[in-house]
Each structure stands twice: as structure tokens, then as C-alpha cells.
């Protein structure tokens, strides 16, 4: 009995150490650990509502209308973004996981600098071309328009 409580204590210490370790690591903006908020999804009938869509777009540093257009294209559906509520309504039934996946792809392709990993970037439209311009390292990456 004593033995098992020792093990438990050690495990707790280990957890405590891990927690401390994570606390000490500063969040690196631009790394793959950059946290996009979990989409808050409600499904009503054949529609899917992302309640915190504006917050997500702000984190992605992109116009909500642009992110909305991306999701609509990828999901091959129509939708409407309401600037007052900050919600996006999609005319399709889709799970939170799938939305998260597409948001991550969006982040990788249209937000994060592929050269230095910074998220201090902007999307420039030059005629038919779209270019991801990095404010941190100056790299320019042509991206697929949508
Ligand atoms: Zn860069």
C-alpha cells in the first residue's frame, strides 16, 4: 500500500513539473503552436453556426469575410457572415473538427510566413495573383487565390 501511494506522489510531482514547464514556455507567435480558438459550433437543421467566428478571424488577422469565403469554397456551400453578432452561418451540416481542420489549413497557407514562421503577414492581391507578404522577414509567397 505504501508503495502505491509513493508512485502516486511521484506521478503528481511529475505532473506538477510538467505544468510548471509549460507555464515557463512563452507562447511563440508564428510557431506551429499558435493557437486558433476552438470554433464554437451549433448545428440547427441543415445549418451550421460558428458563434465565435469574428474572434477566430481576428486571431488569424484576416477579414472575417475572407475567411468566410474560404470556408464556403472548401465546403462547397453558401453562407453568411453577420458583422453584428460576429457569427458565421453555413448552409451545410459540418462538424467542429472539419471546421478546425480547414481553419488550420487556412492558417498555414494564408497567414503564417513559410520562410520564418511569423504571423505578422498580410495578403496582397496583385491583379490575379495573391501574395502573402511577411512584415517580419520580407519574404513574399504567391498563394492560391480563392
Ligand atoms: Zn517571414
Q: How would you explain this protein's 3D organization?
A:
The protein is α+β, with helices and mostly antiparallel strands and 146 residues long. It has two domains: 31-111, 2-Layer Sandwich (Defensin A-like), CATH 3.30.30; 113-146, no CATH class. 38% of the residues lie in helices and 22% in strands. The strands form two sheets. It has a four-stranded antiparallel beta sheet with strand order 1-2-4-3, covered by helices on one side. It has a three-stranded antiparallel beta sheet with strand order 5-6-7, with no helix packed on it. The N and C termini lie far apart (63 Å). Bound molecules: zinc ion. Residues 113, 115-116, 118, 134, 136-137, 139 line the site of zinc ion. The site of zinc ion has 8 residues, from loops.
Note the topology.
Elements: H1 2-24, E1 41-44, E2 47-50, H2 53-59, H3 64-74, E3 79-82, E4 87-90, H4 96-110, E5 121-126, E6 129-134, E7 140-143
Antiparallel strand pairs: 1-2, 2-4, 3-4, 5-6, 6-7
Bound molecules: zinc ion (ZN).
Question: What is the chain-wise order of helices and strands?
Answer: HEEHHEEHEEE
* Helix-strand category: alpha+beta
What assembly state would you assign to the polypeptide chains in this entry? single chain
Distance between the termini: 63 Å
Give the amount of beta strand, in percent: 15-25%
Identify low-pLDDT runs.
none
**Helix percentage range:** 25-40%
Strand order of the largest sheet: 1-2-4-3
Question: How many helical stretches?
Answer: 4
Count of distinct strands: 7
Average pLDDT taken over every residue: 88
Shape: flat
